[in-house]
Amino acid sequence: MQHFQVIQTALINGEWIDSKNKLDVINPATKQKIGSIPNLGVKETQQAIDAAAEAFPIWSKTPPATRANILLKWHNLILQHKSQLAALLSMEGGKALEESRGEIEYGAAFVRWFAEGCRRVDGDIIPSDNPEKRYLVIKQPVGVVGAITPWNFPNAMITRKCAPALAAGCTVVLKPSELTPFSALALAELALEAGIPKGVFNIVTGDAESIGNTLCEDPRVRKISFTGSTRVGQLLMAQCAPTLKRLSLELGGNAPFIVFEDANLDKAVKDLIASRFRNNGQTCVCANRILVQESIFETFLSKLVDAVKKLKVGLAFKDESVQLGPLINQEHLDKMQRLVQDALDKGAECVLGGKPLDMGGYFFEPTILTQLNPTMQISFEEIFGPILALYPFRTEEEALQIANATHAGLASYVFTENMPRLWRMMENLEYGMVGANTGSMSNAITPFGGVKHSGFGREGSKYGIDEYIQLKYLCLDVS
Ligand code: ADP
Fold first, then answer.
1. Does 273 lie in the same domain as 126?
2. Ligand 1: residues within 6 Å at CB?
3. So what's the pLDDT on residue 261?
């Protein structure tokens, strides 16, 4: 990638594919068009699956050390282009520039981690219980993988799925979000430059339903890895039933953020700001319900108000000092207004913010709501925006009961300096992840994923590559 330019074509079998039918991509901070992508569908998805299926026998048998070297080169190229990739990400996703640079590093870390890990996918020899038999287990790639990714991490969600898949020896057909496709296409260009062979990594842009449907229905696709809404995850699972595909689903969350009276309040406030306002509140692990022990509720609230007032909202893609960008589109902006209005109608108090900001894009004021109750939409929906919803609680039992009273089970957070209580909470929270006295916990080397309606499968860590591997048992008669 000599001169960085926005790639506006899909990638099938190593060829950049265009079409007359296009979808526009908008900068959410200005509502202006950045460019467009081919609006592809069933036919092109089938072509991409053809290419991935054809490339699979060779890629899956390429020695892991060779695959690792190619992936390490990809990793290095991503980091070499960090500032350009971050600028593109902020432009299409609205994310603060510093956060975007962080995402590029975070995304690259998955590539490196799985490049290193694929050389250690060891099988087993099981001590035999029969003198005439020997038992072995080998690990093989699952086959062609369909990956479907969201807009809130346009870079890292791709590497988090594609790096382990490619490292394991699978080939991939990726459908990035139509809202943020350019980060994916830029990654693909670097992947080609790193030497990933044609057909091994394909990107189909366009109509979500027909691309998704085709990936799910085709028996050659052996695995779907999806990050997005619970609604679409359920749909994909149903669509995959006839071909019995393996699935990894990383779906919505409704994270409790519990602050006990014995917590370090300044740390809790700082970490809450980091958790709730990352990507302007648009991550699936954002603190969604802030549970604060009654005895410290007012103190905590006043510290929080001071901290939130300092946050700078604006054109994150071009102003380094901006911390909060816009929401991704009108639909999400409307949702903020709906959640606030519904809460106010049912008796909530708006302590700060509460309205859209007239700045040209999909901006909403950082908002704090109190006096909330479980009948309000905000208490059971994933907010996905810059709203802090605070609830008081009296006892540990009550905090746990409220925290677990949701179908979601992705991230949870608990703040207390009381060690036995911390342990009890960590063990009893029905979530895939618990941040104990921390509001940020995700990285390439630990297992990310949920329980209940937040899905299943783990990304990152030593477990992440297992999602793309199947076991084969070999029974050898030595009589
Ligand atoms: P979000 O609310 O985060 O946008 P979605 O589940 O709508 O979550 O989107 C996540 C990804 O799923 C995006 O790439 C989107 O295009 C894709 N998607 C949306 N609807 C479907 C569908 N019916 N089939 C397959 N993919 C879909």
1. no
2. 148-150, 175, 177-178, 208-209, 212, 228-229, 232, 235
3. 98
Q: Ligand 1 atom 25: the closest Cα is on which residue?
A: 212
Residue ranges of E strands in 251-347: 255-259, 287-293
> Which are the contacts of 187, defined by CB distance < 8 A and separation ≥ 6?
78, 85, 107, 155, 158, 159
Give the whole-angstrom CA distance, residue 238 versus residue 217: 10
Distance 133 CA to ligand 1 centre (A): 49
User: Tokens 């370090």 correspond to what residue?
Assistant: 264
CA 270 remoteness from chain centre: 23
Q: In terms of DSSP H, where are the helices of 218-250?
A: 230-240
Q: Identify the residue whose C-alpha is closest to ligand 1 atom 14.
A: 177
Candidate list 92, 99, 250, 365, residue with the active-site label: 250
Segment 242-286, tens digit of pLDDT: 999 999 999 999 999 999 999 999 999 999 999 999 999 999 999
Domain-located, residue 127: yes
Range of the domain at 201: 10-251+454-477
The residue-averaged pLDDT of 359-382 equals 97
| 479 CA distance to ligand 1 middle (Å) | 55
Return the residue whose CA atom lies nearest to atom 19 of ligand 1.
208
Query: What are the φ/ψ torsions at residue 147 (nearest 5 degrees)?
Result: -120, 130
Same domain for 363 and 467? no
**pLDDT at res. 4:** 65
Clarify whether residues 276 and 246 are in a common domain. no
3 has pLDDT over 70: no
Atom of ligand 1 nearest to the CA of 148: 14
217, 218, 229, best to mutate for ligand 1 pocket (most atoms within 8 Å of CB)? 229
Find the 311 Cα to ligand 1 centroid distance in Å. 30
DSSP state of 406: S
Q: Could you tell me the distance, in angstroms and rounded to a whole number, from the CA of residue 150 to the centre of ligand 1?
A: 7
Nearest to 104 by CA among 131, 76, 124: 76
Q: Are residues 225 and 357 in the same domain?
A: no
> Could you report the per-residue pLDDT of 65-102, keeping only the tens digit for each?
999 999 999 999 999 999 999 999 999 999 999 999 99
C-alpha distances (whole Å) from 353 to each of 191, 342, 350 are 43, 15, 7
Looking at residue 2, its pLDDT comes to 42
Based on the domain organization, do 423 and 464 belong to the same domain?
Answer: no
Residues 288 and 162 in one domain: no
Q: Is 118 a catalytic residue?
A: no
281, 133: one domain: no
Q: What is the mean pLDDT of the segment spanning 11-37?
A: 98
Q: What pLDDT, in 10s, does the model give residues 101-111?
A: 999 999 999 99
Atom 17 of ligand 1, residue of closest alpha carbon? 208
284 is catalytic: yes
The size of the chain, in residues, is: 479
Structure confidence by residue, pLDDT tens digits, 295-306: 999 999 999 999
